[in-house]
Amino acid sequence: MLFSVFLFSSTVNSVFGQSIKYETCGNKTNDPLSVIITGCEDLKICTINRSEPIHSSLNYISPIDAPELRLNIWAKFFSLWIPIKSEPLRVCGQYGVECPIVKGKEYLYNMTANAPWLQQVQTKIRLMLSSPENKPIVCAIIEIHIV
């Protein structure tokens, strides 16, 4: 598993990071309004220090109503998207996430991950929040360099 701990809350203090460049995940997904990762000095390729917690957030407007929210994370290796966890992480009712998710409402969630065992690598990470039926709510692909 690439990320071991995720903590969500419904507010973020944007002084901890700035919006970084991200790729869209293709059609049928909702692009975020912003993606923030603390400590990213290069807005194109985010350097992440594996010995420090990784603080990030997604700001988006939900395109659908959903009773729950789930986090799916993949890493790209040799042109293949590999899931970080076999099952999506349920985030409603935990980490301060309020559900149900309401269509047209703006949301802002913080994530904190600790992963000191990561290998040094440059890759892409795809983050997607979805409904229990795997309908995408928001999705972004970010390029990272782990040191």
TrEMBL record:
InterPro entries: Ig_E-set, ML_dom. The gene is 107365119. GO terms for cellular component: extracellular region. This is MD-2-related lipid-recognition domain-containing protein. It is found in: Secreted. Its main location: secreted. Pfam families: E1_DerP2_DerF2. Residues 1-17 form the signal peptide. It comes from Tetranychus urticae (Two-spotted spider mite).
